[in-house]
Amino acid sequence: MLILECPCCGVKAEETELAPGGEAHLKRYGPGSSDEDFDNYMFARANPKGVHFERWRHAYGCGKWFLAARCTATLEVFGTYPAQTTEPPAELQAYIKSRRPEWEGYK
Amino acid sequence: MKRYSGFAVAREGLNYHLGWGRAWRNPAPRKKYDVIIVGAGGHGLATAYYLGKNYGIRNVAILEKGWLGGGNTGRNTTIIRSNYLQDPSAAIYEKARSLYETLSQDLNYNVMFSPRGLLMLAQTHHEVRGYRRTVYANNLQGVETEWIGPDRVKQLVPIINIDGPRYPVLGALYQARGGTARHDAVAWGYARACSDMGMDIIQQCEVTGIRQANGKVTGVDTTKGSIDCDKLGLVVAGHTSVLAEMGGFRLPIESLALQALVSEPIKPCMDVVVMANTVHGYMSQSDKGEMVIGGGTDGFNNYTQRGSWQHVEETIRALVETFPMISRLKMLRQWGGIVDMTGDRSPILSKTPLGNCFVNCGWGTGGFKAIPGSGWAMAELMAKGAPGPLTEEFSMYRFREGKFIDESVAAGVAH
User: Fold this and answer.
1) Closest by alpha carbon to B345, among B392, B408, B388, B296?
2) What CATH code is carried by the domain that includes residue A68?
3) The model's pTM
4) B302 contacts in A (CB within 8 Å)?
């Protein structure tokens, strides 16, 4: 069972308490952007077999959104971090790199 | 290949059944093929079969990283139906269902198609309205379905609890010619027919790269060396995004785990397929007597072919509520498959930004029922290089244009 530590309230929450929210760090495009950018933002998703950054909500806990780094090939959880960031924290990236030397890095 | 028949069984019986031979060859890859299909599951093999049968394209290789039919083809609940709301979906699923009717004869391989009837229960007033609408739509599309009341449901499924405490059964969308088939036999039958046409099915051969020149595909790199091709078809379900990345394009797809389970075998007690979408579970009884059970997907990206325990519990809870007599059944096996979900829960059969590379994916939680129709339509797309009537609505560019084929809203559930 998937267990993520909510960075907002500190609770180690298991899957039934959490609501998945899809890919994290999407760059948003609105009016004035090209069709291709908007199409990509709306529909195309990173769907890697390996390191994946995603949004979660502690739905049956504190109710806050947060972000998590997970491996979709093994279900290993690398860590969670607050949602108020535009990219994963450096120490988390370094930790992922130590666990997955073949990882090409964020973006 | 030896033709299977009653006479052949008698003839081989005289020789202790030692003379049958293998159903398909296991060749080493050649240097070049006209067409390479990646993925020897139901959809990939069906694509190859109809390329040969309908278009005479037989210099074809089907590459498979594991063993044929070992992915979602071997991991589903074998349900076949075509009671979809939207016209393009009804067209391709009904094509598939109608091909299933004669598939055993076409392939000379018993796929055990059993059109035993399929019920989608309406357990809220919203569902009653939704399914009555679907019945009207199906009648216009030429798909035979009807709306039936609770009494008829009880007559068809004596073990059902009509007056459920939470969700009483208010009626059902009934497709009398829906049903099940033997999933492995579908893959094996197509594989045998493809091999007989001279196509090479190459197992344990994983594609590691897609080679291209001037915006067109020229071949693939595999764990068994590089192979050239004129046209490439990607038919790999859950791993589509991984292959698309090798091809240099992105798709609106996420890979999720979907689970199924079977109970211990019991005496025949239910001779139709029942789907209960409000509580979210579906069940049928296999020929061996096992209750075959499925439910919803997990909500997060996953490539591990294992699902979450609470989804098993959720599904069982839903079905115990609907069929109280199964509460004492022991579950024998449980497994997961990786399904490729699109935003509108409809498949993608499309040309791609890479020339001569075609993709057939996004069947999500309901691919098995579509295998013959999907192969038929994909073969037309690949042979002509342009979409035909069955595929033109299923382009990967429909999202950009806002032309969704919205089956998630139509059913209130992914299927």
Assistant:
1) B408
2) 3.30.2270.10
3) 0.95
4) 72, 75
pLDDT digits (tens, 9 = 90+) for B253-285: 999 999 999 999 999 999 999 999 888 899 999
Domain annotation covers residue A107: no
The SS3 of residue B146 is strand
What residues in B contact A45, CB-CB < 8 Å?
250, 252-254
- The parent domain of residue A64 ranges over 3-99
The upper half-sphere exposure of residue A48, i.e. CA atoms within 13 Å in the direction of its Cβ, equals: 18
Q: Kindly state whether residue A104 falls inside one of the protein's structural domains.
A: no
Closest among B316, B156, B239 to A73, alpha carbons compared: B239
**Nearest beta carbon to residue A75 from set B253, B304, B399:** B304
A85 lies in some domain: yes
Average pLDDT over residues B55-68: 97
- The answer to whether A39 faces chain B, any CB pair under 8 Å, is yes
Joined together, the tokens standing for residue B318 give 């839903």
Query: Which of B303, B304, B395 is the best mutation test for A, with the most CBs of A within 10 A?
Result: B303
Q: How distant is the Cα of B237 from the closest Cα of chain A, in angstroms?
A: 13
In a domain, A81, yes or no: yes
The tally of domains found in chain A comes to 1
Pairing of strands B225-234, B357-361: parallel
